[in-house]
């Protein structure tokens, strides 16, 4: 009898551990459940006209107005439609790894009575929602439910991490916006020196498809011209944009004036001459950033000083400048 005691104790301990592991879903076949459980919310991205994020007590809502996305309460904030589309794609891609409980009566058990985060979209007047609760015993996963339903899912935190964003995450990051192919002149000044990049006219019967460019009167290749323009076109902001008035107001001295002349393609083929479009920007060096402001624009876009200097250096390395 004494010899059987250790074996009996082991069986009891094993039984307790098995019960605990089963109760906490340690034996879930993730691959099988992933196939069985669909995405939490199905929606047609093109029909979504509002998104809302509520995390850590902070609320952010964006609404679609005439194909443009706007931040509610700050309607002229510069929003990137690509960033919003990416968020919607992430939202509709959230899937449950498993069903924890189909008819949950006590949401408090999963932290869903007071969710740590709530994400929602509005599709054709219908609000679709994902609520995030506490962590599950399985590392890297949380409890979640969709549309206020009673089914509780186990969801990967990595699926949800892309939903937690701030207004800055949705902001347009490019201070300069224009179509590269339409550029006819790109002119700017810095520390008393002017750089004037122009696209020269090509003879009608030349048969040469290569564009002719000049920098301060000296010929440069098309490849070089594109590289110079892109040095500024690819600049990105690394912090929140601010109201232009706060940067350029009170007689602030402009450090970097830029003028871009564009020649949009003619829609009316009968029209003989195309109308040139001029875009002007002003740059103000402040707090280790070059704040770039479009003429008449409401916002100033901060580019890190080192990144701006790299763009300047790209042009200066060419060694062609007006005194």
UniProtKB/TrEMBL annotation:
InterPro entries hit by this protein: DUF4340
Domain DUF4340, first and last residues per copy: 69-236
Pfam family, one: DUF4340
Name of this protein: DUF4340 domain-containing protein
């Amino acid at each position: 009898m004494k010899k059987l005691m250790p074996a009996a104790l082991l069986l009891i301990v094993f039984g307790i551990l098995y019960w605990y592991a089963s109760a906490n879903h340690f034996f879930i076949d993730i691959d099988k459940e992933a196939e069985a459980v669909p995405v939490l919310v199905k929606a047609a991205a093109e029909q979504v006209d509002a998104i809302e994020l509520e995390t850590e007590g902070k609320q952010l809502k964006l609404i679609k107005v005439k194909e443009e996305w706007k931040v509610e309460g700050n309607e002229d904030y510069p929003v990137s439609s690509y960033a919003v589309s990416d968020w919607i794609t992430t939202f509709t891609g959230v899937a449950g790894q498993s069903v924890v409980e189909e008819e949950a009566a006590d949401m408090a058990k999963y932290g869903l009575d007071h969710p740590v985060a709530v994400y929602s979209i509005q599709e054709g007047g219908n609000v679709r929602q994902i609520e995030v609760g506490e962590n599950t015993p399985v590392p890297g996963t949380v409890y979640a439910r969709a549309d206020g339903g009673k089914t509780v899912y186990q969801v990967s935190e990595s699926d949800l991490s892309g939903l937690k964003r701030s207004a800055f995450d949705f902001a347009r990051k490019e201070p300069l916006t224009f179509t590269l192919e339409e550029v006819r002149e790109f002119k700017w000044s810095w520390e008393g020196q002017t750089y004037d990049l122009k696209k020269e006219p090509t003879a009608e019967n030349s048969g040469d498809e290569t564009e002719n460019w000049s920098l301060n009167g000296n010929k440069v290749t098309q490849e070089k011209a594109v590289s110079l323009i892109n040095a500024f076109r690819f600049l990105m902001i690394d912090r929140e944009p601010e109201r232009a008035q706060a940067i350029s107001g009170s007689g602030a001295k402009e450090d970097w004036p830029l003028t871009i002349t564009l020649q949009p393609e003619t829609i009316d083929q009968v029209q003989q001459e195309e109308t040139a479009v001029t875009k002007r920007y002003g740059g103000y060096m402040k707090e280790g950033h070059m704040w770039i402001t479009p003429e008449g624009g409401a916002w100033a876009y901060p580019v890190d000083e080192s990144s701006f200097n790299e763009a300047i250096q790209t042009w200066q390395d060419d060694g062609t400048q007006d005194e």
